[in-house]
Amino acid sequence: MGSFIIRESRLVTSAPSSSAIIRQQHSEFDxxxxxxxxxxxxxxxxxxxxxxxQNKVIAGKxxxxxxxxxxxSKPGWRRPAQNFQKVNxxxxxxxxxFNQVTxxxxxxxxxxxPAVDKDDSDxxxxxxxxxxxxxxxxxxxxxxxxxxxxxxxxxxxxxxxTVLLSTDPRxxxxxxxxxxxxxxxxxxxxxxYLEEQLYLETAPVERIAGPCFAVTDYPAxxxxxxxxxxxPAQLARHVFTLADYMRQNQxxxxxxxxxxxxxxVQRPGLSADADAHYGMIYETLRVFLWAREPAFxxxxxxxxxxxxxxxxxxxxxxxxxxxxxxxxxxxxxNILQDMTSPWFQRVLPKIPLLFHDTFQDSS
Length: 363
Description:
Helices cover 24% and strands 17% of the residues. It is built from nine helices and 13 strands. It has a ten-stranded antiparallel beta sheet. It has a three-stranded mixed beta sheet with strand order 1-2-13. The radius of gyration is 19 Å and the shape is globular. It starts with 18 loop residues before the first helix and ends with a helix.
């Protein structure tokens, strides 16, 4: 596997906007990731192929993208989910961890990924052997340091800087905590490409305090941040402030990252003619963070889906054909709101206290 060197000067803070440009122009990062991912998938590294994957947009205001993947539910076709009992689990060397993966699962190594610290010699991008979508990978910062499944400031900086190497606005990223439907207790972040647009790319927001906003019209009640001053390190600090508060207070959480419209440009979310807005909506990175009802124990289905980072973002994964076909916006909205609204209300009064010194930093 050949290597390429990524330099910080190649960070792309504004992605191309039209459908034609998206198809024709890819950064070096996108080209290498897609090529190596396809090569690994074609070599049967994953438990299953995505040949039977079906996506559809559910009718309604929020344009939820439902995905039916029957392969994902087959016995033995994913690593066993670990039995979390708290949001702050200790690392257990006896459980599966990413130090145990084979070389075939490595898509990019530390010499090919952005270094945000002189200590960044063991960060890896691994193919997700139970893939969500095309390009589905796991970013594992400082893999050999055995960090449990929690958001760290360093990990966030690596993730955001990696996402900014892409010029494809379809690239999504995120995180699920212990109790937030994470499966492996070893710090990792998801990245993958999603063809369909999501409501959260343009959803209206309102400022709560400093750099922290609330999504004003979306069933999953949560918090939002954006890239300011083309500074991923600053964005990482802001997101980490809230994520670490949730962790310290034993609140399960999910994070979703997408290219999107600047918060300074307030227009309605995606509509039926959303393609007409392609030229307007990829001005920044949007980061969404939700405190949510915890799901401790081995992951169980909530009906046909496990609400985690994808579902909070509006990308609904299901393995049940009937429920895929019967899924409605109302039913999905009720699930997401029930899981997040009480926790949002608990965190909301703390936001001004957490960010009282950061308004100038975010301006």
